[in-house]
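TL;DR need structure tokens for one chain.
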Amino acid sequence: MRGPVVFDRRKSGGGRLMARRHGWAGNTPASDEEAINRILDAADEIIAERGSAMRLSDVARALGVTRQTVYRYFPGTEALLIATVMRSGDGFLDQLARHVAGETDPVAAVVEGLAFTIENLSTDDRIIYILSRRSRGELAPSLASETALAFSRSMLHRYQVDWQAYGFDEAALGELSEFLLRILYSYLADTNQPNRTGAQLRAFLARWVGPAVMYPRIAAAVESVERVTDAATPGRVRRRSAS
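>> reply
TL;DR here they are.
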């Protein structure tokens, strides 16, 4: 049986729980951060072998600790799955950046980046398991969570696009991030229908996502035309543009 849990501010940096030096197959982590990374490493190995069938007890057994030790850091299997997805997200963003490197056109970059993301993440067992909870009538993670939105915004910031030159401030970029995230979610969550792939997927996204990417410039052009028209037509009541 494991020894009692102690509260060690010096090692945790923020007052988190630290376990006494027992278990961990004789190689106890020096900090909470190391413990979390080793738990995630073990989870990644199990997921690679079994997919989303991984359980916290499997991870505990692989690490030579009790389930209670893993529970100290992750309250359940889904929390652990989400953590592995988010940790691998940084590596995926690096792949995405390399894939669209050199593309400065916003439509081309967004369409290719979104297609690349759909094609790669749709085969990730962890993501499919998490998103399919909603179809099973269970509570699924929020689509517009701060973590998900931050991930989506990070995708856009990896592109070599001068967003400001195309009319995007941070608020507009945040809205575009949410819009793309919702499209991505719809593709990843709907696994029952055959999806477009390759050139067909890119043509479809370009046709419907492209105008959304160009909206700030289109809106600015429309307003410029209206200002010139209003100035040349005395007494004309300006039509309110959509915003």
